Amino acid sequence: MLSVANIDSYYARSQILHRVTADIPTGEITAVLGRNGVGKTTFLKTIMGLTDRMSGQITLDGKPLGTEPTFRRARAGIAYVPQGREIVPDFTVRENILMGAFAAPPGEREVPPLVGELFPYLRDNMNRHGGLLSGGQQQQLAIARALAAKPSILLLDEPTEGIQPNIVEEIENIIIRLNKELGLTIILVEQNLEFARRAGDNFVMMEKGRIVASGRMSDLTDDLIHRHLAV
Amino acid sequence: MVDTLFIGLSVGSVLLLVALGLAITYGAMGVINMAHGEMVMLGAYTTVMTSTWLGLGIWWSLPIAFVVTALVGLLIERLIIRRLYGRLLDTLLATWGVAILIQQMIRLEFGLSFFGIHIQGLGPGLQNMSIPDVLAGTINIFGAEFNKYRVFMILVCALMTGVTWFIMYKTSVGMQVRAIIRNARMAAACGIDVKRVNALTFAFGSGLAGVAGVLMAGFKTVFPDMSTPMVVDGFLVVVVGGIGSLIGSILAAGLLGQVNALVAWGHNDVIARAVVFAVVILTIVLKPNGLFAYKRR
């Protein structure tokens, strides 16, 4: 289980997260909900060690990660699919995927067979430059790169944002498959409430850098949604 | 004319060795390393020292100087630069300080000159390095006479550039360096130990400068501030070629070397220098990111 406790997180001098505590159950999808700018992305970045400074505890299966540098967290099994995807435009599809594999155990640096099965387009265009792909294809590539790390936990930051509608559903189904069939623990930051409800087993509701509610997805009441999500 | 182009090529190739290290370290780490020129100087002094103390010729100096300067580079990275990542101006000032320190250490023979101890080969004076007979004189290629030592310089530079290319594009560590140049945070999130790779990159770049120093020792006088103009020229190449671009550095070094040689041949060295700067300024005005900057998204 991934646990975060009393997390404060900062960019330069501004504090973004305040005393964030959450347990992320293994093998389930936890949706992180909240309006724009409440710290959802920072929550994921903090788990990955990508903010300027943080304090508090992060443990993965009892192993403390809070003071570890980013690359050790990645090698401990946490893979990150960032908002905006951040694939390398002048790396080929294969190079982009293999970039993720630096977090995989030694001797397993490869394009996982699963990638070809999930994303036939990527399999057939291994030598294309990442920058030439469409938004949806780049999203697939970012997920493939994360899978190359052979992770146990996947952090997904708005995976369906800004991609063409016909691919949105495909990516949503793949995310659910990764959880159900491979048993990956997934933390999903999502604006699309309908998808978050369909996919998520649990939710975490954020407001102004704090967690204001959390629980099973069935406990996500209309009242909570109205209070923390309605614009 | 052919002769002039040839001289331009040999000057450009040494320039390239200096610039390659700068291009990679600036590209990967955002560090402006003012002490890079001193690695050239240390390489040249290593050549002098291996000759005076070990009686070894220039062949041995090449690997020895590479190792010595790479280790010095590693030390600088560990002690100073590592603490200053992300602070561009601070690294510039700090490495400039390191550059002055290294120069003075050589000039004062590690401070021993205060105690009246003299280390042969060091000190403020000028040093000369003789080149082996095999490399003296000229060689006839396609009916034209070429200075053998300059041919040797070009070959060594071509070899080192080839090695650099191979490491960058065909090895795992090279892919890590390229990933860091493109997106350091994402590289870390993909499990790349950015600090370790940066340290290795820095050491390698310093080693390349050291090899350039060995080549310089063979045709120029060796003295403590011999490399100050080199680091300026190195940065010009990086700026013209585009940050972090291997092919850009190669072409820019060739371009600037040739412009320098051609104008110097037609007019004189001072005008040549002015024209080189004009070319650099023109490039910055027209293509602020250099000729071969990679496209960001």
From TrEMBL, chain A:
Transmembrane segments: none
Listed Gene3D superfamilies: P-loop containing nucleotide triphosphate hydrolases
InterPro entries the record matches: AAA+_ATPase, ABC_transporter-like_ATP-bd, ABC_transptr_urea_ATP-bd_UrtE, BCAA_Transport_ATP-bd_LivF, P-loop_NTPase
Keyword Magnesium among UniProt keywords: no
Keywords: Amino-acid transport, ATP-binding, Nucleotide-binding, Transport
Domain of life: Bacteria
MF terms (GO), sorted A to Z: ATP binding; ATP hydrolysis activity; branched-chain amino acid transmembrane transporter activity
Membership in a protein family: Belongs to the ABC transporter superfamily.
Name this polypeptide is given: Urea transport system ATP-binding protein
Automatic annotation (TrEMBL), chain B:
Family membership noted in the UniProt record: Belongs to the binding-protein-dependent transport system permease family. LivHM subfamily.
Pfam families: BPD_transp_2
Main location group: membrane
Top-level taxon of the source organism: Bacteria
Transmembrane residue ranges: 7-32, 52-76, 88-106, 151-168, 202-223, 235-258, 270-294
Coiled coil: none
InterPro entries, per database record: ABC_transp_permease (IPR001851), ABC_UrtB_bac (IPR017779), BCAA_transport_permease (IPR052157)
Keyword Membrane: yes
GO MF entries: transmembrane transporter activity
Residues making up the signal peptide according to the UniProt record: none
Record-level GO BP terms: amino acid transport
Protein name: Urea transport system permease protein
